[in-house]
């Protein structure tokens, strides 16, 4: 019997993006947040019903903040009893809907801050790490690691890329690789997210960009319901092309061609005399060579780099004739063919018993 599965879901709850997704002008398949939540609840209930030991956590990424909406390990007030509904499922649905309404009502109405996807991703990784390494207590021993739930993470995204979050997302990817955790991404609205594509590719997850948003439940059930161990036996849809571009450290822009510091591996969109991360200084000749090569590559809105003034060439030192040889070199005439011929050759070895 396979191990239980722990699913951590991150919801991108940007009000402006969900409003654009619900508009019917020029879109054949609009999807609003109110129509999306019931289909999400069916998917979460199916995950909990597939095995009794399965666990679940739901995080919400709001503008400027992130919070936990639900955790199966916590105790909540039971919802009103209904003979036609399984009580734990109804409790989970009501808790998520209530927490979601409270967080959305507390958001300011004047300006929308960037979505806190990195914060929700970090909290989810911390929760998974705590579940994967339970501490010993006085009254109970830690469970067998082979019986712990297998963790996985699902990101439901509607927002575009945020270049300033490139480094934190890459750090989260490295953390997920160390935890042997797969990150799945379901892109509902907007252009493809470059950083989330890389997260799914580097952790062995699936990245799906939905064409028909009115069939979101079918995508969730067929692609993201089964754990990674079962997906190896299934034909799970994946992306054929993956965008592996990076964001520069200087302007926080996604670049096609960049320049990497050989010391700290920082990425820059143009050659700079001094690395802004490790403060190492690059040779002037190298900068001049890069400047000549990058002129047709740089975008028109990025100015050419200013190079420091080159120092005057030093006066060459002339060695007097018949001086001592340079260290590391052997003087000429020592091993000439004429003198090499005078070196006696070793006598051939004769095997014992032969003359």
TrEMBL record:
This protein's record includes keyword Nucleotide-binding: no
Pfam families with a match to the protein in the record: Tfb4 (PF03850)
InterPro entries, per database record: TFIIH_Tfb4/GTF2H3 (IPR004600), vWFA_dom_sf (IPR036465)
Gene Ontology BP terms: nucleotide-excision repair; regulation of DNA-templated transcription
Compartmental location: Nucleus
Assigned keywords, A-Z: DNA damage, DNA repair, Metal-binding, Nucleus, Transcription, Transcription regulation, Zinc, Zinc-finger
Functional description taken from the UniProt entry: Component of the general transcription and DNA repair factor IIH (TFIIH) core complex, which is involved in general and transcription-coupled nucleotide excision repair (NER) of damaged DNA and, when complexed to TFIIK, in RNA transcription by RNA polymerase II. In NER, TFIIH acts by opening DNA around the lesion to allow the excision of the damaged oligonucleotide and its replacement by a new DNA fragment. In transcription, TFIIH has an essential role in transcription initiation.
Molecular function (Gene Ontology), one example: zinc ion binding
Protein family membership: Belongs to the TFB4 family.
Keyword NAD (UniProt): no
Species this chain originates from: Serendipita indica (strain DSM 11827)
Predominant location: nucleus
Domain of life (superkingdom): Eukaryota
Protein name: General transcription and DNA repair factor IIH subunit TFB4
One Gene Ontology cellular component annotation held by this UniProt entry: transcription factor TFIIH core complex
């Amino acid at each position: 019997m396979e191990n239980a599965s722990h699913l951590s879901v991150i919801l991108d709850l940007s009000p402006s993006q969900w409003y654009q997704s619900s508009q019917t002008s020029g879109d054949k398949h609009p999807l609003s947040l109110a129509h999306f939540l019931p289909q999400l609840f069916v998917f979460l209930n199916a995950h909990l019903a597939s095995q009794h030991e399965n666990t679940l956590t739901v995080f919400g990424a709001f503008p400027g903040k992130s919070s936990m909406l639900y955790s199966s390990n916590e105790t909540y007030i039971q919802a009103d009893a209904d003979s036609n509904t399984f009580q734990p499922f109804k409790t989970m649905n009501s808790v998520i809907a209530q927490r979601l309404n409270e967080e959305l009502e507390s958001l300011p109405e004047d300006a929308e801050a960037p979505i806190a996807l990195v914060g929700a991703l970090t909290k989810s990784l911390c929760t998974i790490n705590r579940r994967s390494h339970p501490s010993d207590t006085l009254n109970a021993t830690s469970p067998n690691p082979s019986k712990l739930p297998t963790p996985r993470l699902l990101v439901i995204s509607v927002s575009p890329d945020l270049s300033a979050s490139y480094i934190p997302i890459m750090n989260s990817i490295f953390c997920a690789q160390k935890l042997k955790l797969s990150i799945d991404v379901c892109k509902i609205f907007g252009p493809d997210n470059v950083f989330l594509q890389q997260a799914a590719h580097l952790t062995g997850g699936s990245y799906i960009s939905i064409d028909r948003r009115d069939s979101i439940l079918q995508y969730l059930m067929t692609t993201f319901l089964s754990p990674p161990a079962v997906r190896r036996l299934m034909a799970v849809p994946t992306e054929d092309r993956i965008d592996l571009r990076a964001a520069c450290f200087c302007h926080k822009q996604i670049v096609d061609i960049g320049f990497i510091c050989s010391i700290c591996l920082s990425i820059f969109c143009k050659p700079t005399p001094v690395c802004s991360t490790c403060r190492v200084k690059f040779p002037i000749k190298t900068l001049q060579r890069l400047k000549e090569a990058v002129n047709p590559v740089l975008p028109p809105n990025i100015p050419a780099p200013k190079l420091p003034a080159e120092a005057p060439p030093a006066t060459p030192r002339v060695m007097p004739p018949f001086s001592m040889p340079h260290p590391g070199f052997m003087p000429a005439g020592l091993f000439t063919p004429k003198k090499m011929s005078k070196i006696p050759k070793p006598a051939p070895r004769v095997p014992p018993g032969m003359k």
